[in-house]
C-alpha cells in the first residue's frame, strides 16, 4: 500500500538519511532537553515532518539495546507525526536511557514532542519566512 494512503506510516520519505540532512538540523536547531533524550528540530521545505535518530555506543554497547531505543523513538514519532509542524527532527539518546522501561521512554518522548511542537510553532509564528 502506498505511503500516501497510510498517513501514520514511517517510510523512507519521512527519514533523515544522510549526514548533510543531520548537519542542517544541528546548524539550525530548536532544541528541547529531557532526562533520556535531546530533541532537535529545524525547518524543512517539505510537506511532512522527518525524523533522524542517533543512539551511540556510549548509550549502550549492546546493539540489541540500541535498536530497542530506536524502535521506541520511531514508534513515538509515527504516532504523533500528524500533529507536528513540517520540520526535520533529530532525537539524540543519552546514556541514562539504557535499561529504562519502554513506557518511561515513551512518556518522555511524548513530553518532548509536545514541548518541541510548542516551541517550534512559537518560533515559526514569530520569524520571517
Molecular structure report:
This protein is of the alpha+beta class and 129 residues long. It has a single domain, classed as Ribosomal Protein S5, domain 2 (2-Layer Sandwich). 40% of the residues lie in helices and 18% in strands. The chain is built from three helices and four strands, in the order αβββαβα. The protein has a four-stranded mixed beta sheet, with helices on both faces. α2 crosses α3. The chain starts with 18 loop residues before the first helix and ends with a helix. The mean pLDDT is 87.
CATH class: Alpha Beta
Determine the CATH topology: Ribosomal Protein S5, domain 2
* Count of DSSP H/I helices: 3
SS-based structural class? alpha+beta
What proportion of the residues is helical, as a percent range? 25-40%
Order of helices and strands: HEEEHEH
* Broad shape: globular
Number of strands: 4
| End-to-end CA span | 35 Å
Q: What amount of the residues lies in strands?
A: 15-25%
Q: Tell me the count of domains.
A: 1
Would you identify the regions where 5 or more consecutive residues have pLDDT less than 50? none
Average pLDDT across residues? 87
CATH architecture field: 2-Layer Sandwich
Strand order of the largest sheet: 1-2-4-3
Amino acid at each position: 500500500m502506498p505511503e500516501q494512503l497510510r498517513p501514520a506510516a514511517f517510510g523512507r520519505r519521512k527519514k533523515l538519511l544522510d549526514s548533510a540532512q543531520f548537519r542542517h538540523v544541528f546548524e539550525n536547531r530548536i532544541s528541547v532537553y529531557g532526562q533520556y533524550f535531546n530533541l532537535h528540530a529545524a525547518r524543512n521545505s517539505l510537506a511532512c515532518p522527518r525524523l533522524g535518530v542517533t543512539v551511540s555506543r556510549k548509550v549502550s554497547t549492546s546493539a540489541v539495546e540500541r535498536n530497542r531505543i530506536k524502535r521506541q523513538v520511531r514508534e513515538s514519532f509515527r504516532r504523533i507525526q500528524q500533529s507536528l509542524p513540517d520540520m526535520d527532527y533529530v532525537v539524540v539518546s543519552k546514556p541514562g536511557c539504557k535499561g529504562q522501561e519502554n513506557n518511561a521512554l515513551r512518556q518522555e518522548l511524548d513530553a518532548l514532542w509536545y514541548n518541541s511542537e510548542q516551541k517550534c510553532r512559537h518560533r515559526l509564528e514569530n520569524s520571517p519566512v
